[in-house]
């Protein structure tokens, strides 16, 4: 009963967080500023009307959308390679004990890089106090990598990010840190970590256990308090990443066509796929929105995560002057979703329950 009572409070927290994050999208800077700063602005409505008035563009987008819907319907109907999918899910579930370590690496590494580079979470945000910025990034990053005081450090990092966001909307560019910090605060350091070593020493009959003032008095009660929430870590991750993807598609491409077109022109992307630059921008924006909506709904979550990983690989590593270090958090959190799947409150969970009910009904009964 205690666990059920905790879900509404967590749901309210997640809903409020999503509202705050979505509300900031209209003011934040774009990822394309990393590689195409100072481009000429384009009027959004005029751009969209002109682009979507082209019959070829409409045909390409229509065929693409219909193909996605058809592929999803066919998969649900036929369920090809069931054994392969089952083995993949089982394998991914076997990595759950390493999830805290993966999350710490995903957040700690880019923070250390931010500290040494002198920016605050995002390369487009540099504070007027460079020494503090460097100490924050390096200190919080190394503590997360080392896994020492993990939950406290993650909470401190989350508060620092949200305070910074209130004064510098461009920090929304690094919104993936929010689900990363939240997930780490819920799961703790895991293993391997300094916290795990200290906990083992404090739990056994050792000299250290007789002098440790923190483990039994603070750490254990806190772990018991947050334990009911750990099952919604997949929800935190996919909602945070889903918001990030919708933001990338809408605010950075569809609502910011001037800079997006500048990226297409700078890297001559039309020579890769010979379509109009406008179709490149609209197609990329809608693809990111689709992935984001799938993650928010928890539909085909591992598949959406795999597509996300492919998008990051082809777009980020394909741009020679893009600061890839700043995107390690995205790669890591998407990889974490491959392990966790959608979790509760998702279309995937509903489909799984429906399959179980179908099997129970169709199972033969003894006379």
Automatic annotation (TrEMBL):
One of its GO terms (cellular component) is plasma membrane. It comes from the Archaea. Pfam families: DoxX. Keywords: Cell membrane, Membrane, Transmembrane, Transmembrane helix. Signal peptide: none annotated. It is found in: Cell membrane. It is a multi-pass membrane protein. Its main location: membrane. The keyword Cell membrane applies. The chain crosses the membrane at residues 56-78, 98-121, 229-248, 289-312, 324-347. This is Uncharacterized membrane protein YphA, DoxX/SURF4 family. It comes from Halogeometricum limi.
